[in-house]
Amino acid sequence: QLIGSEHFAVWEIYIPDAKQYNINNIPKDKDIIDNLNYTIRRLEEIRVGYGKSIIINSGYRGDELNKLVGGVKDSMHTKGLAVDLKWSP
User: Fold this and answer.
1) Contact 65, 18 (CB under 8 A)
2) Which of 36, 46, 59, 74 is most buried, most CB within 10 Å of its CB?
3) How far apart are CA 49 and CA 46, in angstroms?
4) What DSSP designation does 14 have?
5) Which parts of the chain are beta strand (E)?
6) 46, 54 in Cβ contact below 8 A?
7) Rg (CA), the chain
8) Are 41 and 66 in contact (CB under 8 A)?
9) pLDDT tens for each residue of 23-75
10) Is 33 within 8 Å of 1 (Cβ atoms)?
C-alpha cells in the first residue's frame, strides 16, 4: 500500500499528469508501490531539508500515461523512481 508523509499526500505521486488526460494511473504492482514509498520518503527528507514547499509536477507514470506525455520507454517514472519538481520560492 502507498504511504504518504507529513508533507506529501499519496495521490501527489501518481495524479498530476494523469488528471489532465483523465486516465487511471493508480499503481497496482507491488514493486512499483515499494519504489513509490521509497521515493516519497526521500522527497520528505528533501522537503524537510529545504524548509519550503515542493510541488510534484510529474511522478509515477504507468505505460499509458508515459506514452501520452512522450516519455521514454524505460523512464524511471514508470518504475516509481523519478519525480519532476517545482521548488517553492
Assistant:
1) yes
2) 59
3) 5
4) T
5) 54-58, 84-87
6) yes
7) 12
8) no
9) 999 999 999 999 999 999 999 999 999 999 999 999 999 999 999 999 999 99
10) yes
Residue type, 43: L
Residue pair 79/32 in contact by the 8 Å Cβ criterion: yes
What is the residue type of 46?
A: I
**Cell numbers describing residue 27:** 499503481
What is the rounded CA–CA span in Å between residue 65 and residue 54? Answer: 22
Please provide the size of the chain in residues.
89
Q: Are the CB atoms for 14 and 58 separated by under 8 Å?
A: no
d(CA 81, CA 43): 11
- Lookup result for grid cell 512522450: 70
Reduced to 3 states, what is the DSSP secondary structure of residue 64?
helix
- How far is 47 from 45, CA to CA, in rounded Å? 5
Buried b (16+ CB within 10 A) or exposed e, 52-86: eebebebbbbbeebbebeebeeebebbbbebbeee
